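Weekly modeling sync, notes
Attendees: S.R. (lead), two postdocs, one rotation student

Agenda item 3: backlog of single-chain predictions. S.R. asked that every request posted to the team notebook include the full sequence so nobody has to chase files. The rotation student volunteered to paste the first one in as an example of the format we agreed on. Action items at the bottom.

Example entry:
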Amino acid sequence: MMIAGISTSLSGLSAFGNVLSNAAHNVANVNTDGYKATVATITEDTQGLPQITLARSDSPGTPIDEQGQLKESSNVDLSWEIPQMMIAQRGYEANIKALSAQSDALKSAIDMVV
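Predicted structure, as returned to the notebook:
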């Protein structure tokens, strides 16, 4: 049972780490003309563990006119990405705390046996 909890926490760490990485990649490309943001969604797999799904956003960026040429700016929305980063950070921190608590409990169990 203890190992299942550790596995779940590690899966959560991986999922939230990927969400954070995706949001950081989008933010880094906020000024890249024509860049299309990627949306990360956490879903549950058949075993009840979190998995991440990435999908390219097809919403248009702002049209810009540079020297008579029409271009499209990035469609990254910072008012969406920053809160996503904050949520992912809190999820990551929660899984770290759960992993730490499980580690302490396992250590206590081993200390009782030894």
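Discussion: group reviewed the output briefly. The radius of gyration is 20 Å.
Action items: rotation student to repeat for the remaining queue; S.R. to check formatting next week.
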